[in-house]
Specification:
With about 170 residues, the chain is an alpha+beta fold. It contains 6 helices and 6 strands; from the N terminus they run ββαββαββαααα. The longest helix has 9 residues, at about 20-25.
């Protein structure tokens, strides 16, 4: 279960695990705006609903942060679409393809990893896109800034909790 985190000014900032959201709440750094009513955490003396949307109580000065390399961020960079055929993918269905296969010295990096559907990934196999007769829809690059990256990527999709819709638009 994930929790949507909003800034003090109500802008979507990121997604975190429910455990991280509970830690922020217990520390008094966030308020819970929405909760998963059907999911609860039980302690010896209390019952809490899992947070679905939280908001920071105080703003922090913005700093230009680099976008960390992760599979989730590659998914966001590629907008949830196969970089070979353009099919829209759910996170759980997505596979990741090394443009230059690892067996040929390809690195796991922003510039060499792309989102791919299973059939394209299997069709390309251990070849370069040129050898497989496939074309990348765009050149994989490292996103330049975290803020612009998140603003463009945190949009409501059907695989997200419905409670997030008012905060993400859609």
């Amino acid at each position: 279960m994930e929790t949507l985190v909003l800034s003090a000014t109500w802008e979507p900032v990121r997604r975190v695990t429910w455990k991280r959201a509970m830690t922020l709440w217990v520390a008094g750094r966030v308020e819970v705006l929405e909760a998963y009513s059907e999911r609860r955490i039980r302690t010896v003396s209390s019952v809490f609903e899992l947070p679905s949307v939280v908001r920071f109580l105080r703003g922090k000065p913005r700093r230009r942060a680099i976008v960390k390399f992760s599979r989730d961020n590659v998914f966001l960079r590629d907008k949830g679409r196969c970089m070979y055929c353009g099919a829209e993918l759910l996170r759980r269905e997505a596979t990741y393809d090394h443009v230059l296969p690892k067996s040929r010295g390809g690195q796991t990096s922003w510039e060499n990893l792309v989102l791919a559907c299973r059939s394209c990934n299997h069709g390309k196999a251990n070849r370069t896109p040129l050898e497989a007769g496939m074309r990348l829809r765009s050149t994989p690059i490292r996103p330049k800034s975290l803020q612009g990256f998140l603003r463009n990527q945190l949009r409501f999709r059907e695989d997200m909790p419905e409670a997030w819709r008012p905060y993400l638009g859609g």
